[in-house]
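Re: weekly structure request thread

Next one in the queue (694 aa):
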Amino acid sequence: MQGYVTSISRRASRFSLLTLTLVLCSLSLPGFAQPQTSQQGTLRLLAGSGDAPSGIADGPASVARFNTNFLKFDAFIGTAMNGEGKLFVTDPGNHTIRQVAADGAVSTLAGKAEQPGSTDGAITQARFRLPSGMVFDKAGNLYVADSGNHSIRKISPDGMVSTVAGKAGAPGTADGPAAKARFNTPTDVKIDTAGNLYVADYENHSIRKITPNGMVSTWAGVSGKEGNAEGTGRQARFLRPKALVFDAAGNLIVNDAGEMIIRRITPAGIVSTLSVGPEKFDKNKNDQEIEYGEIDGMVADADGSVYLADRSSGKIRRIKPSGDVESFGLKEKGQTFDKPSGLIFSRSGEIFICQQDGNIIKINDKGALMPLSGPTYGNGTVDGPALEARFWLPIAITADASGNLYLTDYSHTIRKISNTGMVSTVSGMADQTGSADGTGNEARFNTPSAIQLDSKGNLFVSDQKNHTIRKINTAGVVTTFAGKAGEAGGVDGRGTSARFNLPMGLAIDKHDNLYVADNGNTQIRKINQDGVVTTLMGKKETSYKPRDGDINSGRLVDPIALAIDAGGNLYVTDRTFIRKITPGGKLTTIAGNKARGGFVGPHSTQDIYGVSWGIAMDHAGNLLVSDYDNDVIRKISPKGKMSTIAGVDGYRRIQTGSLPGRLYRPMGITTMDRNNFAIISGDNVLMMTLPGNP
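Done, posted below.
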């Protein structure tokens, strides 16, 4: 496994998108072409390439795109190879099965993007819903765990799709003949030498078996009963088993995802623990990691080793037959995998790895790595005309009264999009970290994460990993306004005597008081015009349990972004919650489901689980929230009613034109004028125009 590494930074490759029409707004935006009137509202590309690593495109390797929104569905990208060595990949976010040729070209085998369903029949007419793991049998039939349909589907060599077991829209636990059997979110399927299918029945916490004659039984665990127990058959207990693979000895290896345990089931049905993160990694002298992350795909080799795609750590784990664990990828030769999900070996010894951001890489039998399909990445820090400029993971954005936009860029720089449509670097130097003050590119930052303007035209930046608040005056001179570089803490005081811990969101009130989401301290801090820092709300917590209350009793869990209204009320995106702090110091939760940890409006039937990275206030007092995980912009009215105004939940890509359009991981959002809002979407800046925003 030496050399099985890759350096894939999160960059989007570039292909052109048409600039589409906008709503004609009452205020002229200098330098930006004026849009045509629309009653629906629109999205338009302001700066960047318009590309995103996620999409629906078939075609050559550099053009092809997968929908990388699969993580939220408790599904993963499944991989399989047929007898001819062709690679097949499930694309859960697009509800399709894709085929990848040897040159990386991608085509859709079955299903249709953005059209979930359960239709059987010819592959051109068939529909799937969140297809996950899959496997070929010796006859060339492809079996698919169709997670969202709670069923096992089959694609025959002649191109016909049928339902093998289970019933779409009818989750359950029933064993028996295939047509009467029921599953609950099956996520993987594998086949033994006798032709029996084994299913990871995720929400039933069990392993199911389908015989060649179509009888379904619960082979290990008890359907509907979660737990953590070894034993034979029904004596065992699982918690959300997710992925399966047969090892060289014929044992079924199970990723027991809810417990972060790798289990082994012998042909006789005896369940034991093969590997538990903390115990095994503590014994591994070559790896300091102490636990598994989120394991998705698994594959086994002829020597009896099992390989795991550990998405959260960026590693490929190898469990040897002895139980010892090796890890590959993280910081090996300075490189890393990018959240690997699907994993498979070819007969010739190649390894194919599907990664979260929509690309597939191939490692040959000599350890050489090469991109196979999907976007390729490179740090984009190009200045120039807006549609030719490139960004590298911009995070936060703000606008001045003249229509100029300022944003923080992950290249450790502050960028500007002028109202004439030109992009420039205001401060810092791309890819060079530091804490130096100075003018323009003399200054250095370390992961600037938020930016705001005061009434005098000064820019304030939360320099996250320097634990400081920086100031850029109108002459472009950067100084450290509060905190001390390299010294994290939670001390109040004046200027550089104060301490912060990973500060993030910023907001400025009408008196030019600055508010800071001090993320590492789970607090909101206030800095007055004289630079005096005080703690406004919160106490350092690690329980992630929000609590409403006053300055002494109120608790935050993960403050990220801030916005302030004309009355001085401060709004906080607090992980999956939206919180409000009144001028009197009262903290309340205005959106978010405390019981389930989700983001749900108090007057909405939507049940959403996204982390919010941006928040802005419109002129009518509505909050606009960028729901990063769900790829949408939400609006929360002053009365607490929530609606989705841009993007479609579950469809992660960029599509300009009439709203709702499509968004890719929206982050910063800011108000430009009455009807227009700038949104960071992937490595791009979009303008959202709302129709007749009263």
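The two ends are 61 Å apart (CA to CA). The chain is about 0% helix and 40% strand.
Next request, please.
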